[in-house]
């Protein structure tokens, strides 16, 4: 038994400790966000945040994650109430097949938490570990840019 | 009997090859989508094969509509486009429409979702069906109200008329009202009155995809579902000699090891257990390998040395001249579809029925293949399309469907989910075939093209199900199905020879297709088929000829074109790019242009690029891409832009990075390190797409229009920067760097 904190909620999981987080998220906790892409840490489809840092969940065994703060795409919002990055991806119509998008959003979330006003080079560098095959890259960069603007505007308004 | 003698003479003579070949080529009434080439009933789009209106559109008592399409969402946005078409003609608000996609239990058979035909075939059918349903509803209202149809209007799901006549669609519809055959002509909405079509309606599938909704077959969880994995052979045709399955079967959580001949799989309660069991099983399997692959370093030569069936697909004027100014060989390696999500399927078998949830491009052809494979009646097999990762042609989807079915039949009553591993997708998907093209061309005294010859060598681009032998599992079982005869897709669309006939006006030209029945590596359809290499070759040659003629490459193209729509996309691209007034680029930068009309039948697309090459590494980055596309009547302009943007980026990846690697036995590029694709460091710094709207003209597919022009524009831009003409794809950093070095040596001497 391993106790994990996923999207702010404590979860006790029965998968063996060597099980990569991806399979615990998908099979045991029934979360769809993180995707199996390569199982090798090469494509980023499985990216989630652990203590705010993006990790490849496909190669990270759950035994390393006890007591750490795990966030997945589901933790950022819902279709009805999307978070700022999710909303920006919808506004920019940023998907073709969309299989890579969960990982893109998670890595962008880590970027925006670190650098609230990223330049294009910051965005390209941050997303370098993430693969997209449909060629949606231009829209992904636009959506991250837009999310940063929306977040800045929202925090202005909240002041 | 003179008739018999002459026939025998023909078969014995040198003309035999061409005759036998052309017969076989057209004997297949097969197109890339599986649609019949000849109209049966003269009805628009896929109505021709499925004429009943209620096969396409149902209206319930609440006045809401369900639309049925045989096409599948592959990430191209077809769901949204088809809903737009239906909503427009039904005069119903979009939220009142539901779309059911490819399902052998529910939808029309529209063959494969392929060849950029979906809007043309299904969109046309649904548009006409919707218009006819609307008129039937108006007619019913007229009958009930006793007024002429000309006094009634349909809007927002209500038919209204004089004196308070008002019927909701739900009131008008009855059991058999829409159970009628479509008519050949429909009253279609004038493009000037569109409120839903030709609008950038947001995609219906995106919110779930960006929030973790169950959007893919990979996300399905059925009650009682278990997980399967397959142990694939180490190389093509390898035979499983023995496997010690005992220790694997004893692993906690393993339900069953399934073996049938050389087909080997395992079922477990959890996915991670299935993966571990698969690995242990693989380590305990002994194989006999027999595959003999060509020499990767000399692939074009190896392909050109294979036996071929030759057909002249273009022959005008006198293209044979004593010498040619251009005499050049172009080639592309095998290319992987490389979907980010490896193929996946879920199958459920019970006593006499089989259901498969699959991201296949063709639910009916896969159903037929599975029925034959298992000796089941077709009606007992149901294939339901559920989205997978983007497919770009035939990836492992169908094979995974067969794999899941094999395991499910070994465990009746439990749904079995199979997802391929990354290395399986990279090694076993049917690749886009490696190809070679030879172009010879020369200029006349007036600086226009005086002679042109194009030859192309390729294996089949169409090895999809239908025949069970197309499926990996069917070839591995103890009583295997042989691979079916290779299909040479016929002109005018073509396969390897797709786009081998230039759209340019050439008075003396020949094009020859060398179809290779052998398949050195497993191959099938990948976006644009042979069009990518043929356009790459033609447009590279156009660029070189323009240079030889001392003309601007855009003007040179325009002087060889009569097609007004071709001229318009080229001119628009050049204007928006600022081609004429482009400044002299700084060292290391340059420009390139490319154009094609996909298949010479679908969308027109021109691409202009500005690139920069890092002088130290040979690394190419697109600084700016400008494209114009004419896709006929536009359904969703943002959808078209998304397809062209994506096409440019994907083609940049093919062109600059990609090639399947193999040794003489095995495919060796089995992960993203060995098969690199474009990452963010190499994304174009700006992409602009201009959609030329053609209201009222037929739909033209746009999903494969940008690939050829982009590849060619890149080669032309690299030529502009380095002075070197690179003709063997990929144009990767090492090749560009070597070309730059060679050019600087030449300059120094």
From TrEMBL, chain A:
Its EC number is 1.17.2.1. InterPro entries: 2Fe-2S-bd, 2Fe-2S-bd_dom_sf, 2Fe-2S_ferredoxin-like_sf, 2Fe-2S_ferredoxin-type, 2Fe2S_fd_BS, Beta-grasp_dom_sf, Diverse_Oxidoreductases. It is an enzyme of class 1 (oxidoreductase). It comes from the Bacteria. GO terms for molecular function: 2 iron, 2 sulfur cluster binding; metal ion binding; oxidoreductase activity. Residues 1-76 form the 2Fe-2S ferredoxin-type domain. Keywords: 2Fe-2S, Iron, Iron-sulfur, Metal-binding, Oxidoreductase. PANTHER family: BLR6046 PROTEIN, OXIDOREDUCTASE WITH IRON-SULFUR SUBUNIT. This is Nicotinate dehydrogenase subunit A. It comes from Ancylobacter tetraedralis.
Automatic annotation (TrEMBL), chain B:
One of its GO terms (molecular function) is oxidoreductase activity. Transmembrane segments: none annotated. Residues 211-291 form the Aldehyde oxidase/xanthine dehydrogenase a/b hammerhead domain. It comes from the Bacteria. Signal peptide: none annotated. SMART domains: Ald_Xan_dh_C. This is CO/xanthine dehydrogenase Mo-binding subunit.
């Amino acid at each position: 038994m391993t106790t994990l904190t996923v999207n702010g909620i404590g979860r006790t999981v029965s998968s063996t400790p060597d099980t990569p987080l991806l399979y615990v998220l998908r099979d045991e906790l029934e979360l769809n966000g993180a995707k199996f892409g390569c199982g090798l840490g090469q494509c980023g489809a499985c990216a989630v945040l652990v203590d705010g840092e993006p990790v490849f969940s496909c190669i990270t065994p759950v035994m390393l994650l006890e007591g750490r703060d795990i966030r997945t795409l589901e933790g950022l919002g819902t279709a009805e109430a999307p978070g700022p990055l999710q909303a920006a991806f919808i506004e920019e119509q940023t998907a073709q097949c969309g299989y890579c998008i969960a990982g893109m959003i998670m890595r962008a979330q880590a970027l925006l938490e670190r650098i609230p006003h990223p330049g294009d080079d910051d965005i390209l560098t941050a997303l370098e570990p993430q693969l997209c095959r449909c060629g949606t890259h231009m829209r992904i960069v636009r959506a991250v840019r837009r999310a940063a603007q929306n977040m800045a505007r929202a925090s202005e308004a909240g002041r | 009997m003179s008739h018999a003698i002459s026939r025998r003479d023909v078969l014995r003579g040198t003309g035999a090859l061409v005759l036998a070949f052309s017969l076989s080529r057209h004997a297949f009434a097969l197109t890339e989508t599986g649609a019949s080439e000849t109209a049966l009933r003269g009805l628009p789009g896929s109505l021709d094969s499925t004429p009943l209106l209620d096969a396409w559109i149902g209206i319930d008592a609440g006045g809401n509509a369900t639309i049925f399409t045989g096409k599948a969402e592959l990430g191209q946005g077809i769901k949204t486009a088809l809903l737009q078409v239906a909503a427009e003609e039904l005069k119903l608000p979009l939220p009142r429409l539901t779309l059911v996609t490819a399902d052998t239990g529910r939808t029309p058979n529209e063959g494969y979702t392929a060849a950029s035909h979906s809007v043309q075939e299904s969109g046309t059918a649904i548009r006409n069906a919707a218009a006819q349903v609307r008129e039937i509803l108006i007619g019913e209202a007229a009958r009930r109200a006793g007024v002429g149809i000309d006094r009634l209007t349909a809007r927002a799901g209500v038919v209204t008329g004089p004196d308070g006549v008002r019927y909701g669609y739900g009131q008008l519809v009855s059991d058999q009202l829409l159970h009628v055959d479509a008519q050949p002509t429909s009253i279609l909405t004038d493009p000037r009155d569109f409120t839903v079509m030709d609008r950038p309606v947001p995609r219906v599938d995106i919110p779930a995809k960006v929030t973790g909704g169950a959007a893919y077959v990979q996300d399905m969880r059925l009650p009682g579902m278990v997980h399967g994995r397959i142990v694939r052979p180490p190389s093509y045709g390898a035979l499983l000699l023995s496997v010690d399955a005992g220790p694997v079967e004893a692993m906690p959580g393993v339900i069953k090891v399934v073996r049938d001949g050389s087909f080997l799989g395992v079922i477990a309660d959890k996915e991670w257990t299935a993966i571990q069991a698969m690995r242990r099983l693989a380590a305990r399997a002994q194989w006999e390998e027999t595959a003999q692959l060509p020499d990767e370093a000399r692939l074009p030569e190896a392909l050109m040395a294979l036996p071929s069936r030759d057909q002249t697909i273009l022959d005008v004027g006198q293209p044979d001249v004593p010498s040619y100014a251009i005499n050049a060989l172009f080639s592309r390696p095998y290319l992987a579809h490389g979907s980010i999500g490896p193929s996946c399927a879920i199958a459920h078998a019970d006593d006499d029925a089989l259901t498969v949830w699959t991201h296949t491009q063709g639910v009916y052809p896969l159903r037929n293949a599975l029925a034959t494979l298992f000796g089941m009646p077709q009606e007992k097999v149901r294939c339901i399309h559920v989205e997978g990762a983007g497919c770009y042609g035939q990836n492992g989807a169908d094979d995974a469907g067969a794999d899941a079915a094999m395991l499910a039949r070994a465990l009746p009553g439990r749904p079995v989910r199979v997802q391929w591993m990354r290395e399986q997708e990279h090694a076993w998907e049917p690749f886009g075939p490696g190809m070679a093209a030879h172009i010879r061309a020369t200029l006349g005294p007036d600086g226009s093209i005086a002679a042109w010859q194009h030859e192309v060598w390729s294996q089949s681009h169409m090895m999809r199900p239908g025949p069970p032998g197309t499926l990996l599992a069917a070839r591995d079982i103890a009583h295997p199905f042989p691979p079916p005869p290779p299909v040479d897709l016929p002109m005018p669309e073509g396969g390897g020879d797709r786009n081998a006939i230039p759209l340019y006006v050439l008075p003396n030209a020949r094009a020859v297709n060398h179809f290779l029945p052998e398949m050195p590596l497993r191959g099938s359809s990948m976006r644009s088929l042979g069009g990518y290499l043929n356009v790459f070759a033609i447009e590279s040659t156009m660029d070189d000829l323009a240079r030889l003629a001392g003309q601007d490459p855009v003007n040179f193209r325009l002087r060889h074109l009569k097609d007004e729509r071709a001229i318009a996309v080229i001119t628009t691209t050049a204007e928006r790019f600022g081609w004429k007034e482009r400044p002299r680029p700084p060292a290391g930068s340059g420009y390139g242009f490319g154009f094609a009309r996909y298949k010479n039948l679908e969308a027109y697309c021109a691409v202009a690029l500005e690139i920069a090459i890092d002088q130290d590494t040979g690394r190419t980055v697109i600084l700016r891409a400008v494209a114009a596309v004419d896709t006929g009547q536009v359904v969703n302009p943002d959808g078209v832009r998304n397809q062209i943007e994506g096409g440019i980026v994907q083609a940049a990846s093919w062109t600059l990075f990609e090639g399947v690697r193999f040794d003489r036995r095995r495919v060796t590029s089995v992960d993203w390190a060995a098969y690199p694709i474009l990452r963010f460091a190499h994304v174009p710094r700006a992409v602009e797409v201009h959609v030329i709207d053609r209201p009222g003209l037929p739909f033209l597919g746009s999903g494969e229009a940008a690939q050829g022009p982009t590849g060619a524009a890149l080669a032309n831009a690299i030529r502009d920067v380095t002075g070197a003409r690179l003709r063997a794809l990929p144009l990767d950093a090492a090749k560009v760097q070597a070309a730059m070095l060679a050019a600087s040596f030449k300059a120094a001497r």
